[in-house]
Amino acid sequence: MIRSMTAxxxxxxxxxxxxINWEFRSVNQRYLEIYIxxxxxxxxxxxxxxxxxRNRLIRGRIExxxxxxxxxKNIAKLKINQxxxxxxxxxANEIKIRNNEGVINPIEVLRWPGVxxxxxxxxxxxxxxxxxxxxNAISNLIKTREIEGAVLKSLIEKKLKNIAxxxxxxxxxxxxxxxxQNQRISQKLKNIELQLENSRLEQELLIMTQRSDITExxxxxxxxxxETFNILEMKGAVGRRLDFMMxxxxxxxxxLLSKSINSDISICAIELKVLIEQIRExxxxxx
Length: 287
Known about the structure:
Blueprint: E1 7-14, E2 18-27, E3 32-37, H1 46-56, E4 60-70, E5 79-80, H2 82-99, H3 106-110, E6 116-117, H4 120-191, H5 198-212, H6 215-232, H7 239-259, H8 263-283
Parallel strand pairs: 3-4
Antiparallel strand pairs: 1-2, 2-4, 5-6
Helix pairs in contact: 1-4, 4-5, 4-6, 4-8, 6-7, 7-8
């Protein structure tokens, strides 16, 4: 399934300590880059969080933010570093006396790194709840990516059909264009009164016709379009495959333009390049 690399998701859960709030944002990136913002007392979880994300996502710049709102009712279940609390209050009072203003907020004191801590067994429970909430948040992020990916897929398929239409136009023009080209070449040879045997004249006409023949390029374009449709139905990350196909399509459209001997074909070839570039821009955002 096609996934966009641009998405936002969040997940909230209530645990024994308070409320767990996860937020994830992702944008397009060539590789997978992970940036996690955790409270200092939970930095120990970062390796596990990174591992979980790598197991579920392949490309994109991922930013995760975790906040925990402590529930006052559950403060008694936690241990408090009384010595550190007293130091913070002493410093706060000193600043208050100097400036003759300010209020000491107990909740802000509790949020200070190292003030609130739990036993090792209690930590294990909290760690599990945080990681579980994070996994749910990543699931929400993936769902959002898939919804955006479905929109991108629809847009790309529409552009591919437009490309196929332009190719059919060129095929329609080609017989008449080649006929006119042969007449022009024959007329030029007559104008310069060049005496050639019929067999030699036919060979020269054949060579010139082959130089302007774009049947192979059109056939390859058709093949690339079909393959692009097939890639859009694949599972997993397909962004790089699609990008490669756009390079191939662009190469063939350049050849068409260079061989063009008719304004109608040139217009179609330019339109092909425009459509291919529009698809390529969309593909940059696909995982």
